[in-house]
Specification:
Elements: H1 10-23, H2 28-42, E1 48-54, H3 60-66, E2 71-78, E3 88-91, E4 104-110, H4 119-129, E5 130-141, H5 147-160, H6 174-183, E6 187-200, H7 203-212, H8 229-243, E7 250-262, H9 281-285
Parallel strand pairs: 1-2, 1-4, 2-3, 4-5
Antiparallel strand pairs: 5-7, 6-7
Helix pairs in contact: 2-3, 5-8
Amino acid sequence: MQQSPAIFDRRLLRARQRRARTLGSATFLLDRVAEEMGERLSVVVRDFDRAVDLGTPTDALRRVLADGGKIATLVAASPSIMADTSSLAVAVDEEALPFADASLDLVVSALALQFVNDLPGALIQIRRALKPDGLLLAAMIGGDSLSELREAFAAAESEIEGGLSPRVAPFADIRDLGALLQRAGFALPVIDSDRLTVRYDNPLALMRDLRAMGATNILTERRRTPLRRATLQRMMEIYARRFADADGRLRATFEIVWLTGWAPHESQQKPLKPGSAARRLADALGAKEISTGEKAGD
């Protein structure tokens, strides 16, 4: 089997997340996603016996879901489980799940799967672990996130250093994720996205928040040498010139992409077979049917 390229240094990711928890995490984005996921799950007309929270960096999602009353057993599954978790927990890698086939009713994940190197493989494993008619509900950082920071760094490095280095992760595009769910075998896949604009006094405040999220550069191809002061200063000038509002505060965009998919089950809706309609479309529309090769108006 061909191994997926290592885009992310996942050992470094875990170290950065541990550092963020030690220094005091910035959780506003994750808290917002957790509340939204609780609302989305509340409209699903069924309860879930066994669920897994896969990779969510804090217990924010588990606290929200515990109040919903729809889940009998919720297991936290992550590479690094927080010591203060109040739920059942197991240390797992999102790229190598230990769950038996058809053993789970629900898998949820908040802002974790965007850092998986083999996302197609992870989705296939999740689908296999779900029981028939089991649900995946996940939120990921989308490809339009931090576009302002990406543009400002690219312009500054091109001007000061004569070249670019990868600094902002290549997050998945919303147009590709629906196809990935289908390839993984999910039924009734739905992809949608939200955009959150956060305003900062300066780019350094944004970078401090990213550090407090454990979300600084973990690309394997990242430059190992320190960022040059001249490049940083020029990036800040470009950011302020291109992305400032009238009051001088700077915009930072976060795109949240939502993935919903069901493990196939015979009770789910299916498209009709071609030619199986009981009534012709032309009759329903009150129009004249034109046969192949016949032109309108003949």
